[in-house]
């Protein structure tokens, strides 16, 4: 008897780069399913006509047979009414995606979120924290070249994401792009022109698509079988958070303006977590904010690197002494997402929130003092 694996693929509010060209500007377009049904790499039309078209599964698409699985992978496309470019995404858009995964959780074996590349690193991080427990594979993917174009990278990205979500048990949020699967809260967009647009600077990929799709269980946060098949969602995120980048032209007025009304700020500092030490007025503004219970997190501007709890330089020691939280090896995107998540944990005290920011909860950081 033929086995069938059913997969849901979630469509975000401009989840997939399927735009049309208008006056040489790419804009979102609806009905991506019509395009995918014409792509033999992504849809087995013969199987559909012989097995699905007259059944209760007629709304599904079917992947063509291959060596990656003996199961027949079926997937259903959900598309939101309003499509957005991913650069227009707000916190509310990711909350909607997370709620939909929760809503359809028991209907499918895995989920693929088709997401515009500009904010994929934010989306992967935000979904990682909101989905506090997820016993199924969630994969974000997209394309650098639109799927309707002959040289699109989207075909293979989507194909591999579907296969991973349908056949591998990876109970966490991930990002697949350019032949690699990354942890969702570790990924960063590093190029807007290269096909290999994403990287995971401080943590190795979970999987590299070669002739097979194999994952080392040791790479996962949770050992196989240790996560219950359930979805626990925390669907509240603070919008009173922001990222402030330290630059030579920074002034106390800039710091004061950014921190005003904020619950948390990610401070992107030089090197190992340094700020100008001789400009005491800058340090005083940050100190004042922390004393007013603004949760400030110190993340390095470097693509690869860490901000430790025991700073190397005196310029970093000032921030530790006034209560700024080291981000360790978190990306700025992960730090912002985690901060937005932690700040809505109303049952925690300010100090408990500080400790939670320094604690690895989704594989987002390595804190040597906790090793």
Layout of secondary structure:
Elements: E1 4-11, E2 19-22, E3 25-28, H1 32-36, H2 45-52, E4 61-62, E5 72-78, H3 91-103, E6 110-114, H4 120-130, E7 131-134, E8 137-141, H5 154-167, E9 173-177, E10 180-183, E11 188-189, E12 198-199, E13 207-208, E14 231-233, E15 241-245, H6 252-259, E16 264-269, H7 280-291, E17 295-300, H8 314-321, E18 325-326, H9 332-342, H10 350-357
Parallel strand pairs: 1-5, 1-6, 6-8, 8-9, 15-16, 16-17, 17-18
Antiparallel strand pairs: 2-3, 4-5, 7-14, 9-10, 10-13, 11-12
Q: What brief labels describe this structure?
A:
alpha/beta, 2 domains, 10 helices, disordered N terminus, 8-stranded mixed β-sheet, Rossmann fold, 371 residues, 18 strands, 4-stranded parallel β-sheet, elongated
Walk me through what this model shows.
The protein is elongated and about 75 Å long. 26% of the residues lie in helices and 20% in strands. Helix 3 packs across helix 4 and helix 4 (120-130) runs parallel beside helix 9 (332-342). It has two domains: 4-233, Rossmann fold (3-Layer(aba) Sandwich); 241-370, Rossmann fold (3-Layer(aba) Sandwich), CATH 3.40.50. The relative contact order is 0.12. The strands form five sheets. An eight-stranded mixed sheet has the order 4-5-1-6-8-9-10-13, sandwiched between helices. The chain has a four-stranded parallel sheet with strand order 15-16-17-18, sandwiched between helices. The N and C termini lie far apart (49 Å). With 371 residues, it is an alpha/beta fold.
């Amino acid at each position: 008897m033929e086995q069938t694996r059913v997969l849901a693929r979630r469509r975000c509010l401009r989840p997939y780069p399927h735009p049309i060209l208008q006056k040489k500007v790419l804009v979102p377009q609806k009905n991506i399913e019509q395009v995918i049904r014409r792509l033999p790499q992504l849809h087995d039309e013969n199987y559909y006509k012989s097995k699905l078209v007259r059944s209760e599964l007629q709304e599904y698409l079917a992947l063509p047979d291959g060596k990656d699985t003996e199961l027949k992978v079926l997937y259903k496309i959900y598309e939101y009414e309003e499509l957005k470019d991913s650069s227009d995404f707000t916190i509310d858009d990711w909350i909607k995606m997370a709620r939909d995964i929760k809503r359809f959780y028991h209907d499918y074996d895995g989920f693929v979120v088709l997401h515009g590349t500009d904010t994929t690193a934010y989306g992967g991080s935000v979904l990682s924290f909101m989905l506090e427990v997820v016993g199924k594979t969630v994969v974000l993917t997209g394309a650098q070249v639109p799927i309707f174009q002959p040289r699109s990278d989207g075909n293979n990205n989507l194909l591999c994401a579907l296969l991973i979500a349908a056949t591998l048990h990876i109970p966490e949020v991930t990002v697949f792009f350019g032949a690699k699967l990354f942890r969702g809260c570790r990924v960063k967009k590093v190029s807007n022109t290269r096909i290999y647009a994403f990287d995971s600077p401080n943590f190795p990929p979970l999987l590299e698509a070669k002739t097979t799709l194999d994952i080392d269980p040791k790479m996962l946060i949770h050992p196989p079988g240790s996560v219950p098949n359930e979805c626990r969602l925390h669907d509240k995120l603070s919008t009173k958070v922001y990222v402030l980048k330290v630059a030579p032209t920074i002034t106390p007025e800039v710091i004061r303006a950014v921190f005003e009304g904020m619950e948390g700020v990610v401070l992107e500092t030089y090197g190992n977590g340094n700020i100008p030490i001789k400009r005491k007025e800058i340090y005083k503004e940050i100190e004042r904010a922390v004393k007013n219970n603004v949760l400030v997190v110190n993340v390095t501007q470097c693509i690869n690197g860490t901000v430790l709890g025991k700073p190397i330089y005196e310029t970093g020691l000032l921030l530790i002494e006034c209560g700024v939280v080291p981000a360790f090896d978190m990306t700025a995107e992960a730090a912002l997402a985690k901060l937005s998540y932690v700040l809505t944990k109303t049952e925690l005290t300010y100090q408990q929130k500080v400790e939670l920011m320094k604690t690895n909860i989704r594989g987002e950081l390595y804190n040597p003092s906790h090793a």
